[in-house]
Amino acid sequence: MSNQSMWSKNISFVDGQLHLSNIGATELAKEFGTPTFFLDEEAFRARATAWSLALAAEFGTQAGGVFYAAKSFISTAVAHWIADIGIGIDVCTGGELAVAIAGGISPKKIELHGNNKSVAEIDKAVSVGVKTIVMDSLYEIDRVAAAARKYGTRQAVFIRLTPGIQAHTHESISTAHEDVKFGFSIASGAAWEAVEKIAQLPELELKGVHCHIGSQIFGTESFEIAADRLLQFMGRYRDSYKRELPELDLGGGYGIAYMPNEVTVEPADVIPTLGRAVREAAAKYSLEVPSISIEPGRNIVGPTMFTLYEVGTVKDVTIEDGSVRKYISVDGGMSENARTALYDAEYFACIASRNSSAPLVQSRIVGKHCETGDIIIRDIKFPADVAPGDLIATPATGAYGRSMASNYNHVPRPPVVAVIAGKARVIVRRETEDDLLALDIAKM
Ligand code: LLP
């Protein structure tokens, strides 16, 4: 049950009961209710630190840094940890920027992304002095220049490049083939147009290039090709402008284990290969090795959280082929795990409150929402004696779980509880019906 790649480091099973940092699931459910996201704080800190150390070991003075992708999960407490660990953060909206700042992250450690940043978001980012704004359209180049003029500063920018790579992951989370809304295509000449436009604007300082090829990627090949294409582009820049771009950001995307047969990518699996690819490409295009940054999100936070649910009903349904499928309904669903419905994502689950030696039967774990697609796990073999009141845990829900949660069916979003050294504390509280009603303007 406790495949360490799926369950975070401080999870253990004692007599069939899941424990996080020695607190049992039954106790956690009693104190915080269900559904709840439980976050292994020590694991989060360790994962973030490991990426940062690996980058520093590989690139030395040319290690630009880790910029944690806030979209995977952010709260002010997590922003404090990021500031404490000393890494940077990638934000892509005004909301994420606000949380980063509220959590005490220095603007000098913030990178702003987004394919359609509003003028207000750009204004805020320039006014607080973020480290870099990553350019994603020609319109935006003018908007950032205007903001820099307004505040009398020179804004450092990157250009987001589309290197034309088909990363092997779900279509909705693959981002560097040509037919996407992100970035400037290298092949079509759009990227060069962006370079020339930025060069004419004294308010902007082009510091480097960026790409993000997709998410939940295993293996290093796509990253190596991306590094080569981006350095080739940097070589072209040097030939034309007689100066080298000092920075290269290779984005995030490192995969994690959701299922028992998968293995989470660790920094040692990719960073040395990335180092080799960057050095080789730099030599090939006669460039100095630029300062290298990365933006892992899922890989840092994903493995550090699990969701705890309580079973409400169980129903045996005879399906088309005559077999029986057990429908196990829990007290959450597609509002706090949209990934199964959106991407056909696969998750694992187990009973977290007790042992069971019952036979495993064909089952489906579903939520409480009013639609058939409200599925958390489409197919799973589950103990036949699962019953109302049992607690069920789903590992690896830290990334894009709470951050993509909705209020569908007016279900309040679950809290996030951080656990460290045997102590649990709420870092995002549970939404209430009053929170939901607070948005409504009652018109008589
Ligand atoms: N940098 C940029 C510019 C990105 O767009 C992303 C993710 C990341 C970094 C972080 O990628 P990660 O290391 O987390 O793979 N909602 C989808 C994932 C969308 C990812 C969007 N961009 C999911 O639940 O799978």
From TrEMBL:
A Gene Ontology molecular function term of the record: diaminopimelate decarboxylase activity
PROSITE patterns: ODR_DC_2_1 (PS00878), ODR_DC_2_2 (PS00879)
Keyword Phosphoprotein found: no
InterPro entries: Ala_racemase/Decarboxylase_C, DAP_deCOOHase_LysA, De-COase2_C, De-COase2_CS, De-COase2_N, De-COase2_pyr-phos_BS, Orn/DAP/Arg_de-COase, PLP-binding_barrel
GO process terms (BP): lysine biosynthetic process via diaminopimelate
Domain Orn/DAP/Arg decarboxylase 2 N-terminal, first and last residues per copy: 46-301
Ranges of residues in domain Orn/DAP/Arg decarboxylase 2 C-terminal: 306-398
Coiled-coil zones: none
Keywords for this protein: Decarboxylase, Lyase, Pyridoxal phosphate
Cofactor(s) required, per the database record: pyridoxal 5'-phosphate
Protein's UniProt keywords contain Lyase: yes
CDD domains, per the entry: PLPDE_III_DapDC
HAMAP family hit by this protein: LysA
Protein name from the UniProt record: Unannotated protein
